[in-house]
Amino acid sequence: MDLLEQAQDAMARHSWTEAFEMLTEVDATAQLGPEALEILGDAFWWLADYRRANEWDQAARRWCQRVSNESGFPGVCRVKRAEIMRFKGAWAEAEDEARRGCEELSDFPGHAAIGLIVIGEIRLSSGDLSGAETTFQQAHELGRDPQPGLALLRLAEGKHETACELIDSALEDDSLLTLERARLLLGQAYQKRDAQELSRLEFQAAHRTFTRLGAERDLAVTRSLLGEEVERSTKRVVRAMMFTDIVGSTNLINAIGDEAWNHLVRWHDQTLRSLFATHGGTENDHAGDGFFVVFPATTAAANCAIDIQRTLHRHRAESGFAPEVRIGIHTAEVTENDESHTGLEVHKAARIAALAGGGEILASS
After folding, report:
1. What does the alpha-carbon distance between residue 362 and residue 359 come to, in Å, rounded to a whole number?
2. Picking from 90-104, 167-181, 243-257, which range would have the lowest pLDDT averaged per residue?
3. Sequence ranges of the domains in the chain
4. pLDDT at residue 107, rounded to an integer
5. Do 342 and 263 form a contact (C-beta atoms < 8 A)?
6. I want to staple 48 with a disulfide (CB 3.0 to 4.6 A). Which of 26, 167, 215, 360 is the partner?
7. Strand 340-342 relative to strand 361-363: parallel, antiparallel, unpaired?
8. How distant is the alpha carbon of residue 79 from its chain centre?
9. Which of 191-200, 290-299, 312-321, 353-362 is least confident?
10. 248 near 358, Cβ under 8 Å?
11. Nearest to 118 by CA among 142, 143, 147, 157
């Protein structure tokens, strides 16, 4: 833990390169307990290394699913996982996870408030300004300043002066948001006020740090704001979306233990990925034991879903066990960025999958 604590101290001092090197060493060598797993995942999240943040979060999640909620730790896991899911564009799943986290953290108002802030930022991203306002207010009532979400909400409402004041205040409090993301928001506020030189200075400062850290998502946003060419192309396309999920995973982990569960998940992931590829599917996201996959046509998605259930049924008959998997399919127009797909219809697809039972395939009409 000593090295991890030193890395946290370096982050508090904004010594990002030093912190990143320490965390990389911990990542490569350490066997950590649940609290340290969560700290490490949180650290990589702040450094915008979302891939490794997600890996460490999943390790903490497996521990969380086996313990009681008296400590509040499982709820904290959910809220942090929801933040990662939000950055990956899985908004419907992220909001559901954050809401469940808030319920589990009802006796820990400070942590529950963080979950409400995540929900508010998801609603803001989807254009639900009124819903965002409500959840930010609830977070504030629980003692948390809902930044940077509230500042972004004021920008969306056209209240540029108020947004600048909120971001300036946040910059004075390092506990609220990282300096570089605050600079990015402040630059956007200056831009809205036609203070172009000030906005460019803030964008350039953020750009230098994001480049050093390799934070590609934030870097792409900053390049766009600076007027540089962004390689990602965006277009509207019709795609068949599939969501899968292992039913009763928590009870299953309790029954078979971590080691057996890890073996099972590896087999499950390899089997499903092979079938996705066979039917022309493109994996968009993999969170825990679930997949979000996109197909060029409904027929391909349906055939793949049938193949998955038949394969699991056959394995169950031959080996005595295979996990129960639910599958949801929805075909609609979505926004495509390279191989990533976002939009309201993606949320609908996730909700359709959530309605299916174990071994079932549920498709929209």
Report:
1. 10
2. 167-181
3. 2-225, 234-363
4. 84
5. no
6. 215
7. unpaired
8. 10
9. 191-200
10. yes
11. 147
Distance, in Å, from the CA atom of 120 to the CA atom of 102, rounded to the nearest integer, reads 13
Identify the burial level of 20 via C-beta atoms within 10 angstroms of its C-beta, where 0-12 means exposed, 13-18 middle and 19 or more buried.
buried
Q: For residue 306, with 0-12 CB atoms within 10 Å meaning exposed, 13-18 middle and 19 or more buried, which class applies? A: middle
Q: Where are the alpha helices (DSSP H) in the chain?
A: 2-12, 16-29, 34-46, 50-64, 73-87, 91-104, 109-125, 129-141, 149-156, 160-171, 179-192, 196-213, 216-225, 249-278, 298-319, 344-355
315 near 267, Cβ under 8 Å?
no
Q: Beta 325-337 vs 290-295: how paired, if at all?
A: unpaired
pLDDT at position 249 is 86
Q: Which residues pair with 287 in a beta bridge?
A: 290
Confidence of residue 233 (pLDDT cuts 50, 70, 90): low
Please write down the long-range contacts of 93-100, taking CB distance under 8 Å and 24 or more positions apart: 93/287, 93/350, 94/118, 94/122, 95/119, 95/122, 95/123, 96/354, 98/122, 100/75
Residue carrying the six token digits 């998605």:
301
Instruction: For residue 339, give the 3-state DSSP assignment.
Output: coil
Q: What single string gives the DSSP state of each residue in 182-229?
A: HHHHHHHHHHHTT-HHHHHHHHHHHHHHHHHHT-HHHHHHHHHHTT--
Rounded-to-integer distance, Cα 124 and Cα 195, Å: 25
CB of 341 within 8 A of CB of 347?
no
154-194 pLDDT, tens digit each: 888 888 788 777 776 666 654 444 555 556 666 666 666 67
**How high does pLDDT run on average in the chain?**
76
Architecture of domain 234-363: 2-Layer Sandwich (3.30)
pLDDT at 62 over 70: no
* Joined tokens for residue 120: 């508010």
Structural fold of domain 2-225? 1.25.40
Highest mean predicted confidence (pLDDT) among 229-233, 235-239, 342-346: 235-239
Task: Report the interhelical angle of 91-104 vs 73-87 (nearest 10°).
Answer: 160
> Tell me, what's the pLDDT at 30?
47
